[in-house]
């Protein structure tokens, strides 16, 4: 076997998209991490001098990736529990554990439309061992998920529009953007907010 090139998943999606549709100009991955690739001329590519950014310096990804959205929501809940009686018992110990909240659980709580927020109640019990949440606390948890998700999706949309604008395709041509990743594919409300922002 001969290997001619190695590409990451986002570049691969863009290459595949270009094969089927020449109007495909960018690919975006919105999952646990975030990545984007787009087609541009070599002359307009910025030159990078110095070392690559370290993991802690990738701020934009930390505002929109699934791994970080769930952690932002957890941290907001910790702060609210510290400053108010949100969960009636101070700060539940498991709420203090970083990255304990998983993206599918956050999405499930956010997408809970039941009157008493039963899914939120179950997730709080299951994940954080919060057994006595009030209906108001569950409503606040769902709203925190909504705010964090909405902000993340709007920022992701702004990044996509920035790519299209950089390529000079805002009003002049049809542009196809390939979007994939677990947050986009499985988190319906995130996807809806992203569509609205673009």
How does this model look, in words?
The chain is mainly alpha-helical. The chain has eight helices and three strands; from the N terminus they run H-E-E-H-H-H-H-H-E-H-H. A three-stranded mixed sheet has the order 2-1-3, sandwiched between helices. Helix 3 (66-83) runs antiparallel to helix 6 and helix 6 (135-166) crosses helix 8 (188-197). The chain is elongated, with a radius of gyration of 20 Å.
Explain the layout of strands and helices.
Layout: H1 9-20, E1 24-30, E2 34-38, H2 59-64, H3 66-83, H4 103-110, H5 118-128, H6 135-166, E3 176-180, H7 182-186, H8 188-197
Parallel strand pairs: 1-3
Antiparallel strand pairs: 1-2
Quick recap:
The chain is mostly helical. Helices cover 52% and strands 9% of the residues.
**Count of helix runs:** 8
Class derived from helix and strand content: mainly alpha
Order of helices and strands: HEEHHHHHEHH
Topology, number of strands: 3
Summed over residues and divided by their number, the pLDDT gives a mean of 90
Order of strands across the widest beta sheet? Answer: 2-1-3
Q: Per DSSP, what share of the residues sits in E-state strands of 2 or more residues?
A: 5-15%
Could you say which overall geometry the principal axes of the C-alpha atoms support? elongated
Helix content: 40-55%
Please mark out the parts with pLDDT under 50 across 5 or more consecutive residues, or reply none. none
Query: For the report, how would you describe the main beta sheet?
Result: 3 strands, mixed
- Whole-Å distance between the termini? 42 Å
Radius of gyration, Cα only, in angstroms?
Answer: 20 Å
């Amino acid at each position: 076997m001969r290997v001619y090139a190695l590409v990451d998943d986002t570049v691969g999606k863009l290459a595949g998209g270009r094969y089927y549709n020449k109007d495909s100009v960018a690919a975006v991955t919105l999952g646990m991490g975030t990545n984007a690739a787009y087609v541009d001329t070599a002359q307009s590519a910025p030159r990078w001098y110095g070392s690559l950014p370290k993991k802690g310096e990738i701020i934009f990804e930390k505002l929109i990736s699934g791994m970080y959205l769930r952690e932002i929501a957890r941290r907001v809940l910790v702060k609210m529990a510290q400053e108010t009686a949100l969960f009636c018992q101070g700060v539940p110990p498991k709420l203090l554990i970083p990255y304990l909240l998983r993206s599918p659980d956050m999405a499930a709580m956010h997408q809970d439309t039941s009157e008493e927020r039963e899914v939120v109640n179950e997730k709080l019990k299951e994940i954080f061992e919060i057994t006595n949440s009030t209906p108001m606390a569950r409503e606040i948890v769902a709203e925190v998920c909504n705010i964090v998700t909405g902000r993340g999706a709007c920022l992701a949309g702004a990044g996509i529009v920035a790519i299209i604008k950089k390529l000079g395709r805002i009003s002049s041509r049809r542009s196809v953007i390939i979007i994939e990743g677990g947050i986009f594919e499985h988190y319906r409300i995130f996807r809806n907010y992203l569509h609205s922002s673009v």
